[in-house]
Specification:
alpha/beta; Rossmann fold; UDP-galactose 4-epimerase, domain 1; three-stranded mixed beta sheet; 10 helices; 14 strands; 18% strand; globular; binds uridine-5'-diphosphate-4-deoxy-4-fluoro-alpha-D-galactose
């Protein structure tokens, strides 16, 4: 099978690219390099420089020999999505519709889509299963929910079949250091810790220590990016086998607090980090953890990284 990996030069996309190549899939990366990086294009993958807002480029990319699509090209900064929803509407929603329409026109049936735990909003219960109500509290999460809904319709109308993968907190880097492109202007906890550790940033601020959690800091479900990547190939194989669309959470089920991450990072790095406590960040739920039984049962997916220090080590090793 040859897979068009849209957004394949990005952080998660590059790991998906690697996993596909290792399993013998043909890979064509389609990326506008707005946040992705050329250094993430791996030997063995073809590359098309193009935007998902360019319908002609998409149709051209899908016109010959593409058996499936992995779509990871999206804007993902929650705060930014609340300030400039129009950018998120166009890039995420219109872009995804362009992809679905190009697939329909070119007869490409399978799509694996990067969705997010952000579709759930404030958890009504923990751990979150896939049946939890879809109540996003930010526009970014809404774009993911809207795309899922459109995929559901296109599938219902017989045009495509899809796998919606709802990622929890993606962290880490490939342990063999084959992926070296770092995100520009990172917004997430671990890259920020790395910037604080390497002096690129003066200090880390922990957003809130008065949450109703054991140590007062927020708890998240951190899942290693190589485990996430493996779920994409499993999902593609499943779609190719039975053509049944599905939606699954991808998390470990294990919660780790921000303070625990900082403590683990200090152990891995071998020295103290400069950090302080700052007020809560708007829109942060106290706890977000996944019930990922469905991915286990449906795909046989099992996260191999469960130790947070080991996960952080994959980032620190690369940093050095
Ligand atoms: N945090 C800090 N200081 C920082 C950055 C983050 O204390 O400088 C805290 C946050 O408040 C949060 C935790 O670290 O409690 C994780 O924050 P991230 O920004 O790394 O990740 P989020 O949990 O906010 O969101 C991530 C993705 C979303 C996705 C979500 C799903 O960015 O796209 O995981 O769980 F929807």
């Amino acid at each position: 099978m040859r897979i068009l990996v849209i957004g394949g030069a990005g952080y998660i996309g590059s790991h998906v690219q690697k996993q596909l190549l290792e399993e013998g899939f043909g890979v064509t990366v389609f990326d506008d390099l707005s946040s992705g990086d050329r250094v993430n294009l791996l030997p063995g993958a073809d590359f098309i420089l193009g935007s998902i807002l360019d319908k002609k480029a998409l149709a051209h990319a899908m016109s010959g020999g593409i058996d499936g699509v992995v779509h990871l090209a999206a804007k993902k900064a929650v705060g930014e999505s609340m300030e400039w929803p129009e950018i998120y509407a166009e890039n995420n929603i219109c872009g995804a519709l362009n992809i679905l329409n190009a697939m329909t026109a070119c007869g490409v049936r399978h799509i694996v889509f990067s969705s997010s735990a952000a579709v759930y909003g404030m958890p009504r219960y923990i751990p979150l299963d896939e049946a939890h109500p879809i109540e996003p509290i930010n526009y970014y999460g809404y774009t993911k929910a809207a795309i899922e809904e459109n995929m559901r319709w296109y599938a219902r109308l017989g045009k495509i079949d899809y796998a919606a993968l709802r990622y929890f907190n993606a962290v880490g880097y490939a342990a063999d250091k084959s992926i070296t492109g770092k995100e520009r202007n990172p917004q997430n906890l671990l890259p920020i810790i790395m910037e604080a550790a390497t002096g690129k940033r003066e200090k880390l601020s922990i957003f809130g220590n008065d949450y109703d959690t054991p140590d007062g800091t927020c708890v998240r479900d951190y899942v290693h990016v190589s485990d996430l990547a493996r779920a994409h190939t499993l999902a593609l194989k499943k779609l190719a086998t039975d053509g049944e669309s599905f939606t699954v959470n991808l998390g470990t089920g294990k919660g780790t607090s921000v303070k625990e991450i900082v403590d683990a990072a200090e152990k891995v790095i071998g020295r103290k980090l400069n950090y302080d406590y700052a007020p809560r960040r708007a829109g942060d739920p106290a706890i977000l953890t996944a019930k990922a039984d469905k991915a286990r049962q449906l795909l046989g997916w099992e996260p191999q990284y469960t130790d947070i220090e080991e996960i952080i080590r994959t980032v620190w090793n690369l940093e050095q």
